[in-house]
């Protein structure tokens, strides 16, 4: 059995759940890219893959993560090739895709399952959509992320595993193809597995609202956004957007525009 998750924190939780339940025995693999942001045009071609890599290079320029792009540290296409090879070699092999109700997991689900159509009947989805679990305090909650579920509760979640239906293998890749063709930069979960899209500047207005007349580290501005905003995304995406607004002269800045703790930002001084 191959388990697929979409967040690094999910890996450890699922591995702990496997230790508690032998019926879950299998390898846990992670889709690393965040397909809820960035370009998707021709995403399965060499040109589309290169365009997305170039975009991430721009986003991460000046940060400690920039070298990950240069070194090709993240390559989900190799992961898919590995999964397909395993499925071809062993006809008994199965894939379980674990996804919670958030745009990151759902975008990753669409990207992945669209490439596994040849293996219908062997690919399962565990979509934790509006399903309650018990937290560490014994209270019911509805998890937006896999890693917020206790390992012992994960063993209950296995009962949700179901085959991706032939109908879904027809409809979902078509829906993903439409999204890829729209050339938008931000995907939002609208309910169920339905994704909507916005332009790259979708988060800018809300991010800008956390910039004041006093000097603040970029990290503080971004963390306020992540803690208070309804719609959030990865901190590197927000850092990129903040740098773009600075480049456009919207804010005053001091320090080097590298990592989020390397510079401070404030609203522009009155002329």
Question: What can you tell me about this protein's structure?
Answer:
The longest helix has 16 residues, at 166-181. The chain is built from ten helices and twelve strands. The strands form four sheets. It has a five-stranded mixed β-sheet with strand order 2-1-3-4-7, sandwiched between helices. The protein is globular, with a radius of gyration of 20 Å. 28% of the residues are buried. The chain is 41% helix and 17% strand. A hairpin with a 5-residue loop joins strand 5 (133-134) and strand 6 (140-141). It is of the alpha/beta class and 271 residues long. It has two domains: 2-178; 204-266, Arc Repressor Mutant, subunit A, CATH 1.10.10. It has helices at 8-20, 46-60, 66-70, 76-89, 103-113, 151-157, 166-181, 204-208, 218-228, 235-247, and strands spanning 2-5, 27-30, 95-100, 123-128, 133-134, 140-141, 162-163, 186-191, 194-198, 216-217, 252-255, 263-266. The mean pLDDT is 94. The N and C termini lie far apart (64 Å).
Key terms:
271 residues; alpha/beta; Arc Repressor Mutant, subunit A; 2 domains; three-stranded antiparallel β-sheet
Mean pLDDT: 94
N-C termini distance:
64 Å
Strand content: 15-25%
- Unreliable sequence segments: none
Number of domains: 2
Helical fraction equals: 40-55%
C-alpha Rg, in Å? 20 Å
Instruction: Trace the largest sheet across and list its strands.
Output: 2-1-3-4-7
Beta strand count: 12
Please identify the structural class as seen in this structure. alpha/beta
What is the approximate shape? globular
How many helices? The count is 10
Largest sheet: 5 strands, mixed
Helix-strand pattern: EHEHHHEHEEEHEHEEHEHHEE
